[in-house]
Amino acid sequence: GEDVEQSLFLSVREGDSSVINCTYTDSSSTYLYWYKQEPGAGLQLLTYIFSNMDMKQDQRLTVLLNKKDKHLSLRIADTQTGDSAIYFCAEKEGNNNDMRFGAGTRLTVKP
Amino acid sequence: EPEVTQTPSHQVTQMGQEVILRCVPISNHLYFYWYRQILGQKVEFLVSFYNNEISEKSEIFDDQFSVERPDGSNFTLKIRSTKLEDSAMYFCASDSPPGADTQYFGPGTRLTVL
């Protein structure tokens, strides 16, 4: 079946950039999302990108989409300790209502 | 900023009991969803709801599950006879396509079945 894959862990130093990667298999994905989950909290929508775009920037966040390779990345510039969380990649086909999530990447930011 | 709210934040129940998880979606949204996340596992889609009926459901959403929009603001998930494996975080979400087509999630209800 269709799947979304992410590496499980990433550790960076405060002030460095973080890059979280995601691959997906469904070529009909229309929307791709990044959600953040802090400990004990719900899913916070960080940003999203349409499949006809290859980049989107929003303050410290940059999303890159390589549709040919079905690869999505989230870059966090100047990573802060408050960025420590689990980051979920998700994709959705335009005609469907369900989103498919990756397993999440746990980002640890060290001071 | 409007947000999705869920109650309770934590529900503990005995196996075989019925539970109702409650959600208040964002007020002008038209599509509603339930997802679950078993501890340490992926977030999984359960069901979507539009125009007072289920529009899609996954294999997980069997006859033990039901959803309802009993009034203009609440959206509920009922599990008729809970099993141990129903223990999970249950997330409600809402959106209002067409447009950004983004789902906004509630904080979740942690269901523990003993």
Q: Can you characterise this structure?
A:
The complex is a heterodimer of chains A (111) and B (114). Chain A is built from no helices and 11 strands. Chain A has strands spanning 4-6, 9-13, 18-24, 29-37, 43-50, 55-58, 61-66, 71-76, 85-93, 100-101, 105-110. In chain A, strands 2, 4, 5, 9, 10 and 11 form a 6-stranded mixed sheet that branches. A 5-stranded antiparallel sheet of chain A has the order 1-3-8-7-6, with no helix packed on it. In chain A, strand 9 and strand 10 (100-101) form a beta hairpin. Chain B is built from no helices and 11 strands. Chain B has strands at residues 5-7, 10-13, 19-24, 31-37, 43-50, 53-57, 65-68, 75-79, 88-95, 104-105, 109-113. In chain B, a hairpin with a 5-residue loop joins strand 4 (31-37) and strand 5 (43-50). The model of chain B has no long low-confidence stretch (mean pLDDT 91). The chains are: A mainly beta (111), B mainly beta (114). Chain A binds chain B through residues 30-31, 33, 35, 41-45, 48, 88, 90, 92, 94, 96-104, and chain B through 6, 31, 33, 35, 41-45, 48, 50, 55-56, 58, 91, 93, 100-108.
**SSE run of chain B:** EEEEEEEEEEE
What structural class do you assign from the helix and strand content of chain B? mainly beta
Which radius of gyration of chain A do the C-alpha atoms yield?
13 Å
Q: Roughly how much helix do the residues of chain A carry, as a percent range?
A: under 10%
| Helix content estimate of chain B | under 10%
Task: Compute the number of helices of chain A.
Answer: 0
Q: What's the assembly state of these chains?
A: heterodimer
Strand composition percent of chain B: over 45%
Shape of chain A: globular
Task: Provide a count of the helices of chain B.
Answer: 0
Q: How many beta-strand segments of chain B?
A: 11
Mean pLDDT reading of chain A: 90
Q: C-alpha Rg of chain B, in Å?
A: 13 Å
How far is the first residue's CA from the last residue's CA of chain B? 37 Å
